[in-house]
# Entry
Amino acid sequence: MHVSIYQGLLLLSQILQISAEQCTSAGTFRINPDKRNVKLRGFAYRTFENISPRACFQKCIRRTRCHSYNYNRASLRCELNNLKPMYVSESYLQNESGYVYVEVHHYRGDPHFDPCVGNPCNDGEVCESLKNEKVVCILDDCKTPNEAFQNVALGKMCGQSSTFNNEHAEYAVDGLTNTDIHTLKDQSPYWWVDLGSIYNIMRIEVINRYIYGFKLHDLDIAVGNHLDDMSIFANYKGPAANNEHLIFQRSRYTDGRYVKLSITQGPEYLHVSEVIVIGYPVC
# Structure
């Protein structure tokens, strides 16, 4: 039977639209997403780019630490999450077109899905299949560090809405508390830092300027993967005192590449001595 080029392309398109179809020697089966057009935000500990839905499923189920994953068909992006499904709250799920959210506990222990049946690995390990069909546990090449978490904003690229008296944006991430950033009196002054890659952010600290500290008020701190796509991490009403060290921490980690500070009630100046972002890389 002959199939036209158009019919062939249509068939191929339909196959690609199946977001989580897996093939095994026992036949063909489908992974049904627990949620569509949402992602679990703040618990991704590892990401993979340009991989198939099937490969994303395998990346997760082979890792004891992975309890669920987010997958985007358009970007072929796979994000492994380390939050156990029993603790998932609806507030943790963010609407995100094109993503599916999948919990793997439905499939663990099923030999049609789980290549690690009978070979449980420890947390921080991944099971790998050998050519002789045996399975071994090896250390995952990316794990949450055990050492002290670092200031991931230190020395990173940054910017601000305007600059007063040569007090530039980079002074907020130079590691010194005797320098500061200072904007002009803008309607909504802001400052941002590019962390360079995506991090699981544990907390954000702001060290206020040594004089006129009361001008730090109505402060929004936002986190996101793009400057035009950010969500609020914390809000501070204020006003702050001179040299005050403000610490903002949420009950769960938030993943993001950019951190932005902005004053919502203006016109006003924005000036602080230092911004510290504590986290670990999502790799």
